[in-house]
Amino acid sequence: MPKQRDVRIISAFFSYFFSDFLSIRDSIKMAIKLHLLREKWTPESVVSFILACRRDKGLPIFKSKFAGIPFETKEGNAVMAVCWAGEDFIGSRVFTGVPKGDIELIEEGFGDWKKLLRKYSTEEDLRRALRSEVIIGGKKSPLAGSVFSYFYGT
Questions:
Q1: Which of 5, 49, 148, 152 has the smallest number of CB atoms closer than 10 Å to its CB?
Q2: What is the domain partition of the chain in residue ranges?
Q3: Cβ-contact 117, 50 below 8 angstroms
Q4: Cβ 47 vs Cβ 62: under 8 Å
């Protein structure tokens, strides 16, 4: 059981920290600057990025926040798109003007690139993307093949 004096010190520490929380959050928000290729969010541009990343044997990842703070630009909501792993031919970019519904879809959890392909593209594009291998550190990962087999039974 902590002593009364210890509780006061801990309480003072937390009250000091949380009173400055908003100013810390605002400082982080002001400091976030994305120096990446900017591209307008359109169904064609999103599908093109996803398919290019999968052809590169990578996994497309979409992020709408950093440290709990949403990305915003003058054009509206923004999303950072990264092609993780692969053979490094696909550069990261920032999509601007992202509709609120797509932001919510991205924030639901993993697998957002599959959901976006289902929404904006054809079933054949989705099959092709799921069939692609994943290269991590120059080695093939069985991940994509097993995912394809699970969904399509081949």
A1: 5
A2: 1-31, 35-152
A3: yes
A4: no
Strands (DSSP E) contained in 15-90 are: 37-40, 58-63, 65-66, 69-70, 72-73, 76-85
Q: What is the pLDDT of residues 93-112, one digit of tens each?
A: 999 999 999 999 999 988 89
Distances (CA, A) of 33 to 19, 80, 94: 25, 11, 11
Q: How far apart are CA 97 and CA 39, in angstroms?
A: 9
Q: What is the CA radius of gyration of the chain?
A: 21
Cβ-proximal residues to 84 (8 Å cutoff; 6+ apart), any chain: 58, 59, 60, 61
**Are 98 and 112 in contact, with CB atoms under 8 Å apart?**
no
Amino acid at 33: K
Q: Which H/E stretch holds residue 22? A: helix 21-31
Give the predicted TM-score (pTM) of the model: 0.71
> Please, which residues have CB within 8 angstroms of residue 7's CB and are 6 or more apart in sequence?
none
Query: Has residue 149 got a pLDDT over 50?
Result: no
